[in-house]
């Protein structure tokens, strides 16, 4: 069996770092805009970026009959349903508890891929997933609560629904990257996301004006996070197992905390840093190991059997 080169693991690592930084950018944006308006503007900015890259988006594009159902379902899962559930969840539960629920995604993808695609998950990978989950729990519970959670049961349930949508997205993208480029699939998400969130944004309150302090993180979310993060993730999914890619998702809350400490001045306890270390260790264990090459058979003629 051929194992994916190191560059695909590096691109997954970079994608997780980009997504982790999006928590800081989104926190800056939602302080001035409602979540649905923020998501719509983010999708609109990414759509403009893809319009500039339209030559590369449609290069070598060849539609396969019947794929419109899969393409539509992928975009419906993410960004549509995922962002809906995520934005609603954060109104009822704290970001730390939502992050704890999001750590279930790799396990959900692993079970789904094993059930639907017969992907082999070795005990070492299960152990890596469990270790990373323990790290997320440790990191989340190791700090003091800084946000109100008026209805954590409802909020955590909505976050779980967001993870269900993310699971469906991962499995669908894994299939579609065999036929379409990662750039095209990411651009399609932006198109459908804009159409989906436009009426929701129009029904939401808008500020009288939007300053550069809000536009700057919005542009970062729309170009770097949406185009770069999803593009790298979708590109990697074309070359690695869905279970391996999902294992890297555990890095998102860890990167989110690191960027919050760096850019927002948040303080971490020693226990939280230990939890981040467990997350990285778990992701390392959940990766596919490169098998040793089989010994080359001798070119000498086989010995003649006596008799």
UniProtKB/TrEMBL annotation:
<feature type="transmembrane region" description="Helical">
    <location>
        <begin position="98"/>
        <end position="117"/>
    </location>
</feature>
<dbReference type="InterPro" id="IPR050638">
    <property type="entry name" value="AA-Vitamin_Transporters"/>
</dbReference>
<dbReference type="InterPro" id="IPR037185">
    <property type="entry name" value="EmrE-like"/>
</dbReference>
<keyword id="KW-0812">Transmembrane</keyword>
<comment type="similarity">
    <text>Belongs to the EamA transporter family.</text>
</comment>
<dbReference type="InterPro" id="IPR000620">
    <property type="entry name" value="EamA_dom"/>
</dbReference>
<feature type="transmembrane region" description="Helical">
    <location>
        <begin position="124"/>
        <end position="141"/>
    </location>
</feature>
<feature type="transmembrane region" description="Helical">
    <location>
        <begin position="270"/>
        <end position="286"/>
    </location>
</feature>
<keyword id="KW-0472">Membrane</keyword>
<dbReference type="GO" id="GO:0016020">
    <property type="term" value="C:membrane"/>
</dbReference>
<feature type="transmembrane region" description="Helical">
    <location>
        <begin position="214"/>
        <end position="233"/>
    </location>
</feature>
<feature type="domain" description="EamA">
    <location>
        <begin position="154"/>
        <end position="286"/>
    </location>
</feature>
<feature type="transmembrane region" description="Helical">
    <location>
        <begin position="180"/>
        <end position="202"/>
    </location>
</feature>
<protein>
    <submittedName>
        <fullName>EamA family transporter</fullName>
    </submittedName>
</protein>
<feature type="transmembrane region" description="Helical">
    <location>
        <begin position="70"/>
        <end position="92"/>
    </location>
</feature>
<feature type="transmembrane region" description="Helical">
    <location>
        <begin position="245"/>
        <end position="264"/>
    </location>
</feature>
<feature type="transmembrane region" description="Helical">
    <location>
        <begin position="153"/>
        <end position="173"/>
    </location>
</feature>
<dbReference type="Pfam" id="PF00892">
    <property type="entry name" value="EamA"/>
</dbReference>
<feature type="domain" description="EamA">
    <location>
        <begin position="10"/>
        <end position="140"/>
    </location>
</feature>
<keyword id="KW-1133">Transmembrane helix</keyword>
<feature type="transmembrane region" description="Helical">
    <location>
        <begin position="12"/>
        <end position="30"/>
    </location>
</feature>
<feature type="transmembrane region" description="Helical">
    <location>
        <begin position="36"/>
        <end position="58"/>
    </location>
</feature>
């Amino acid at each position: 069996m051929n194992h994916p080169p190191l560059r695909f693991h590096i691109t997954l690592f970079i994608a997780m770092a980009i997504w982790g930084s999006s928590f800081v950018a989104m926190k800056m944006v939602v302080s001035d805009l409602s979540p649905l308006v923020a998501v719509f503007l983010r999708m609109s900015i990414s759509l403009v970026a893809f319009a500039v890259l339209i030559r590369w988006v449609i290069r070598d594009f060849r539609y396969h009959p019947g794929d419109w159902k899969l393409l539509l379902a992928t975009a419906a899962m993410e960004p549509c349903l995922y962002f809906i559930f995520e934005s609603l969840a954060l109104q009822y539960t704290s970001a730390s508890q939502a992050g704890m629920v999001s750590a279930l995604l790799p396990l959900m993808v692993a079970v789904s891929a094993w059930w639907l695609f017969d992907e082999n998950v070795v005990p070492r990978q299960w152990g890596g997933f469990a270790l990373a989950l323990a790290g997320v729990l440790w990191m989340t519970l190791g700090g003091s609560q800084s946000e109100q959670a008026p209805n954590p049961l409802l909020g955590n349930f909505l976050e779980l629904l967001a993870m269900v949508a993310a699971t469906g997205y991962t499995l669908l993208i894994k299939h579609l990257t065999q036929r379409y480029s990662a750039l095209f699939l990411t651009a399609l998400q932006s198109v459908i996301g804009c159409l989906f969130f436009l009426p929701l944004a129009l029904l939401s309150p808008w500020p009288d004006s939007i300053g550069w302090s809000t536009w700057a993180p919005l542009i970062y979310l729309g170009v770097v996070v949406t185009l770069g993060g999803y593009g790298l993730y979708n590109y990697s999914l074309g070359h690695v197992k869905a279970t391996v890619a999902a294992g890297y998702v555990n890095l998102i809350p860890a990167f989110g905390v690191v960027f919050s400490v760096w850019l927002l001045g948040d303080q971490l306890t020693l226990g939280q840093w230990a939890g981040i270390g467990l997350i990285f260790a778990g992701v390392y264990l959940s990766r596919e190991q490169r098998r040793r090459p089989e010994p080359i058979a001798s070119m000498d003629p086989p010995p003649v059997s006596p008799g």
